[in-house]
Amino acid sequence: MANKLPVWLWVPNVIGYLRIVLVVLALSRYGIERKVGFWVCYGLSFILDGFDGMAARRLNQTSEFGAFLDVTIDIASRGVLSCQAYQVLGPLVLVLEGLVFTVNHRLGKNWKIVVIENSPWVVREIFRNGFRTPLGALAISGLFLMPVYGVVSVQMPKLAGMMAWKIAGVLIFACRALCGVAELFCLWRHCAYLISLTANSG
């Protein structure tokens, strides 16, 4: 019965719209004096990220639009944090994630399988089994934790000055750099593909 509704009104996608509202509310509450409201809104959006996939499978409401919406919201959510925490690095990371998503989206729903074909060992290990490998776990951890680490550092300067926190930051940035290796490889291979099209047409 539910699947008779338009795809954009399916439950997982409605959850996605709610996540967008929560991210906007979080952004409106950003700041040291209003950090509780910020993290409540952002935390709820993060929790709902798990429920949309669960709802899609339970209600048989998986769709290409839903997958696109989910990843777009994920990138936007991380981008909000990154741009608030890192004035230069944040926008660069947001652009990189957006470009990589665009490049990989054209490969279809099996893009992870396509990416690992004829790729370097480190890239294969990151993407293998849907990131369920040691290197994949480290890369995804860096992807999600770097924005959070930056915002917490801004909002809690005393914590940011502690040596243990700085060491944690080095580890998180190393994991994010690992993820960046895979992202840059995807961009490089796409550019090589486009160049080959031009060469073949000539």
Describe this structure in words.
This protein folds into 2 domains: 1-85, no CATH class; 99-202, no CATH class. The radius of gyration is 19 Å and the shape is globular. The protein has 202 residues and is mainly α. Helix content is 79%, strand content 0%. The longest helix is centred in the C-terminal third of the chain and has 39 residues, at 163-201. It is a multi-pass membrane protein. Belongs to the CDP-alcohol phosphatidyltransferase class-I family. It is found in: Membrane.
- Taking all residues together, what is the mean pLDDT? 90
Low-confidence stretches: none
Distance between the termini: 53 Å
Gyration radius, to the nearest Å? 19 Å
Oligomer designation: single chain
Number of structurally distinct domains: 2
Write down the overall geometry: globular
Instruction: Please count the helical segments.
Output: 9
Query: What portion of residues is helical?
Result: over 70%
Series of H and E elements:
HHHHHHHHH
The number of E-state strands comes to 0
